[in-house]
Structure formats: structure tokens, C-alpha cells
């Protein structure tokens, strides 16, 4: 298509522009099994309009995708979710939500590249889907924290019991979270940042 001289090409929306005060940017991934709330978390906490790649679920996934416990879910992330949040005037986090269905996990390798750390979202109704997720992070050496996402119908468990069930080392933070709410999602990211800071060797 040919553009006329009168055509206007616009850039990012003004509210999406990176703050002038930002001096450091960090990549963080939001990971978890299918339907645990990754897209919800990115959307609730992002200060810019989030990028999502959700597509309607079709018959093609029948017998392939494990949707036990989330049978009412009608859409799924097929590539990634993307958002951004300013933690301070200087520090900005770029958020990448991974696809949860196992057939899309080959995309994780690219999403993990350059990531400083990860938030693992867990649904206690389907705890078993978290095992492989945590295993992949451990294999790649990506530091992570575990957020137990609150679903109204999900069973409640003591966090120490969940730590044992997930076979988490004592130093890995595990906490309750509600991905629907900005404050709770921001607290999860702050927990990750504090954990990463604690892991950084002190310099003389």
C-alpha cells in the first residue's frame, strides 16, 4: 500500500512510553501450567496495555491438552503475554507470560533467555502440573518464587505442606497470591526482586 504525504504514522501511545527516569530494565517470566492465571497476572499488574496471544480453544486440542479442573476455559495463550511495570522510578520490569499447554513449551527456551527470575503460579486444584514447570526452571538455573494463586473453589493448604508437596528447598519463597488484583500481583513481583537481591553476593 502506498502512503500519501498526508498520512500520519503514529508511534507508541504516550502512556506506554518508558519513563524518563528509568535507568535499569529487568526481564521476568511468569510461568505455570495451563489455566493457572498467568495472563490474568500480567494483565492485572501491567502499567501499559498488555500484549496477549490468546486464541479460542478448538477441537484440535481435544485429547492433546490436559484441561482437567479448568474445563470452562475457552481461550489459551499460544505464544506469550507481555507487560511492563515500574517498581521504582529507576527500575522497570518487563513481564513475559509463558504458554501453559505442554505442546507450546518449546517456546519457553526463547522466553527464558535473559530472564533474571521467574514467578511460578500454582493452582492447588491441579498441583501436579507444577512439577514439570519447576523442574524446567531448576534445569535452566533460573531463580524463582512460588505464588499459590487463589481460586474460590480451590482447596486451602498450609504453605509448609505445599512446600513439601512441591519439593521446594527451604530458601525458595512460597506465598499466597490473587492474580486478579494488581496489589497482590505486584507483591509477588516484589517478593521475587527481594529474593534475587538476597541471592546477589555482597560486594566489598
UniProtKB/TrEMBL annotation:
Source organism: Streptomyces fungicidicus
Protein's name in the database: ATP-binding protein
Domain of life, source organism: Bacteria
Keyword line: ATP-binding, Nucleotide-binding
Amino acid at each position: 500500500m502506498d502512503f500519501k504525504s498526508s498520512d500520519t504514522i503514529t508511534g507508541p501511545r504516550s502512556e506506554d512510553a518508558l519513563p524518563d527516569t528509568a535507568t535499569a530494565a529487568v526481564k521476568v517470566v511468569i510461568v505455570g501450567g495451563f489455566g493457572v492465571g498467568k495472563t490474568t497476572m500480567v494483565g492485572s499488574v501491567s502499567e501499559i496495555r498488555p500484549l496477549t496471544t490468546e486464541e479460542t480453544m478448538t477441537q484440535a486440542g481435544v485429547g492433546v491438552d490436559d484441561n482437567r479442573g479448568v474445563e470452562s476455559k475457552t481461550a489459551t495463550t499460544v505464544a506469550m503475554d507481555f507487560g511492563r511495570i515500574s517498581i521504582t522510578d529507576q527500575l522497570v520490569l518487563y513481564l513475559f507470560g509463558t504458554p501453559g499447554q505442554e505442546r507450546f513449551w518449546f517456546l519457553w527456551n526463547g522466553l527464558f533467555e535473559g530472564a533474571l527470575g521467574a514467578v511460578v503460579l500454582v493452582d492447588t486444584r491441579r498441583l501436579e502440573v507444577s512439577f514439570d514447570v519447576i523442574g524446567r526452571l531448576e534445569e535452566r538455573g533460573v531463580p524463582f518464587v512460588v505464588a499459590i494463586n487463589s481460586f474460590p473453589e480451590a482447596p486451602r493448604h498450609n504453605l509448609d505442606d505445599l512446600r513439601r508437596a512441591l519439593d521446594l528447598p527451604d530458601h525458595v519463597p512460597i506465598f499466597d497470591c490473587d492474580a486478579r488484583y494488581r496489589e497482590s500481583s505486584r507483591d509477588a513481583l516484589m517478593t521475587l526482586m527481594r529474593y534475587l537481591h538476597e541471592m546477589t553476593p555482597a560486594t566489598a
